[in-house]
Each structure stands twice: as C-alpha cells, then as structure tokens.
Specification:
384 residues; 2 domains; 69% helix
Length: 384
C-alpha cells in the first residue's frame, strides 16, 4: 500500500493552487453551479444547454475562452437562423435534413473562413429536425436555443475573467522568453562546434525543434491574446519581438548549416578568443533579453556585447591583413563568411533591441570575409 501511494505522489504534484488543471477544474465547477442556481428559480432546471456551454467555454486562458465563445455564439446564431428557415420552408423530413445541412455549411463557408463556426452552425441546425411540428415552433426553438447558449457563455466568461484569470498575452511572453533562452543555449553549442569541434553537449537538432515548438506556442497564444481586453498595444509589441526571435532562430539555422560544412583547418587560432568572448556576451544578452520580456521590462543593451563585437571586428580585420584564408576554396570561404555574418547579425539585433530589418541573413555588399561593422541604434546595418 505504501509503495502504491509513493508511486501516485509524483502524479499528484500538479495539485496546487497555481496549477492549471486545478484552477480550470474549480472554475468549470463554479460556472456549472452558477448556471444551475439561476435556472432553478426560473423553472428551467431541465434545460441543460446553458450548463454545457458554460462548462465548454472555460479554456486554459481568457483569450482562448473568448475565441471559443465567439465561435460558439456566431455558430449558434447562424445555425439557429438557417435551421429555422430550412424547417419552415421544407419541413422536418429526412431529405430536407441533408439539404438544410448542405446549405448551412455552404453559406457559412462563404461568409467566414473559420471552419469551427460552420461546424457549430451545422450541429445547431440538426436539432431543428426534432422540434415539435407547428408554425412557430422552429422560431421559438431558435430564440430559446440562442438565449440558452448566450447565457451559458456569459456565465463562463465572467467566471473565467474574475476567478484566477489567466491571460494569453502573459503566457505568450513566457513562450517568447523560453524561445530566447533556448536560442542562447543553441547559439553556445553551435559556436563551440565551430571553434572547438563537435562535442557531447545538447544536440543542435533537438534544440532547434524545441525552439520551433516554443515559437509555435507563442504564435498560438498571441492569436488568442488579441481578443483580450486592452491587449492591442501589448500584442503589437510582443508580436514584433516574436518575429525578431524567429529571425534569430533562422539566422542560427543558417549558422549551424555552414558550421557543419566548414573544414577544421578554417578555425583561426588567433581569432578564437575574440569569437569566444562574442559568443559568451551574445548568449548572456539573449538570456537577459528573455528575463526582460518575462518581467515586462525594456530590453537591455549590454555594453559588453558592443565591446565584444568591436573586438571580433578587429580580429577579422587582422585575419584579412594576414591573408589567413587565401589558400582556401571559394565555397569554404562562403560558409565561413556565413558563420561570421550570422554571429554579427545576432549581436547587432541584440544591440538594436531586437529591431530587425527586412534583410536576408546573407545580404550585404561586403567582400567574402569582409570587415563586419557595429550597428548602434539609429544607424543602418550596411554602414561601414
């Protein structure tokens, strides 16, 4: 018995006041009880649709709940209207059921691109074929169904908004911050592979997949957060940061691809210290940026990153002066330039506060291993 309890304990660690499952369970139960408490005095205790709707509308965050409520409300309105029209015009027959559903789905698909609304409208329209016959029965059923659904949605949204509210915008901040932290780890691993060869540390492929997954979560949460009250300004700023983070990840992918194709002989021993300092400063700046986003603070600009970037620039200039790369093939030099350009681009984006330009990671008019330049806020990346 003791062993069984010990085996269950890890599964019960989520039972805390801060855990999503517990809070969603409490809010769902509260919404159902509030609906029932209002329906009993009205003599509508047998009506189950308000309770079902209130239970279904409670999602993991307020933005998701609002999105689901909007889909449910519009789908119910469309289905109630079209279902009542179909039953009134064609009657409640098996062949009119197919015609009614076909027309409902077709019209909803033309009016709105949201497929869930079409499905909800179709589900609502089906119930009209089970209504008691009578001239006004379909329209009375239509109004009653819409009011029941609307009541359940209002109760569910009010409970979700005032009892342990969870905002999608805050969760999106956390997802973007996690992506930047993963990018910092990935950046460190890729640079170490370039400077010191492959190691037994975390696999870049796994880190890339983790970062992509976190970016997808951030995109989904940002879409849900747009519906939250007062989230327009936050959405615009956070969406821009998310796009800048995606740009950093794409640059890292280019950098990793070029590192894998570089021969060991292209590692300049004189340049390793400067590039190591730049990599460390960049990784620290990525993590500091993640903490700033998580804490809703302005993105910091690390002076040490500017110094490290300038030192790397000087090191590359010295390598050119020595002619260290003249004996290598053009293809190898292109990959080497891509690595240097990627390191410089990420550092510049961080110096600029993650404000990116519409420019490809391989764009630029420098020579193959030309001298990178430091870009400070208010200047162009192409300036020399």
């Amino acid at each position: 018995m003791r062993r069984r309890l010990e085996a269950l304990l890890p599964r019960m660690r989520w039972i805390s006041f801060d855990s999503d499952p517990l809070q969603v369970a409490v809010k769902t139960a509260a919404a159902a009880m509030i609906c029932e408490a209002f329906l009993i005095p009205l003599g509508l205790a047998s009506e189950h649709w308000p309770i079902i709707t209130a239970v279904l509308v409670i999602q993991s965050n307020l933005g998701s709940s609002l999105r689901w409520a909007l889909i449910r409300l519009l789908g119910t309105a469309a289905g109630a209207l079209l279902g009542a029209l179909a039953v009134t015009a064609l009657g409640a027959h098996f062949w009119s059921l197919g015609i009614g559903l076909f027309g409902t789905l077709l019209l909803c698909a033309v009016v709105t691109p949201l497929r869930p609304i079409s499905r909800m409208a179709a589900v609502t329209a089906v119930f009209f074929y089970f209504v008691d016959e009578g001239r006004n029965a379909p329209w009375l059923f239509s109004m009653a169904r819409f009011m029941e659904i609307a009541f359940g949605l209002v109760v569910g949204l009010l409970v979700d908004a005032f009892l342990w509210p969870r905002h999608a915008s805050k969760a999106a901040r956390e997802a973007v911050a996690k992506t930047l932290e993963t990018c910092a780890t990935l950046y460190t691993v890729v640079v170490k592979q370039h400077l010191h060869g492959p190691s037994s540390e975390s696999s870049p492929s796994d880190l890339f997949e983790q970062a992509r997954s976190e970016l997808r979560d951030a995109h989904r949460l940002l879409s849900e957060g747009r519906l939250e009250p007062g989230a327009a300004q936050v959405y615009e700023s956070l969406a821009q940061t998310r796009e800048a983070t995606a740009y950093v990840l794409r640059t890292l992918h280019l950098m990793h691809r070029s590192v894998r194709r570089l021969p060991p002989a292209l590692r300049d021993e004189h340049l390793i210290p400067a590039l190591t300092d730049l990599a460390q400063a960049t990784a620290r700046s990525l993590r500091a940026t993640a903490e700033a986003i998580r804490g809703e603070r302005p993105i910091p600009i690390a002076p040490e990153l500017v110094v490290a970037l300038a030192a790397a620039n000087d090191g590359l200039k010295e390598a050119r002066r020595r002619g260290s790369y003249k004996q290598f093939r053009l293809e190898e030099l292109l990959h080497l330039r891509a690595v240097f350009y990627a390191m410089r681009t990420i550092a510049e984006d961080l110096v600029n506060g993650l404000r990116i330009e519409d420019e490809s990671p391989l764009a630029g008019d420098e020579s193959i291993v030309g001298l990178p330049t430091v870009v400070v806020p208010g200047t162009s990346r192409r300036s020399t």
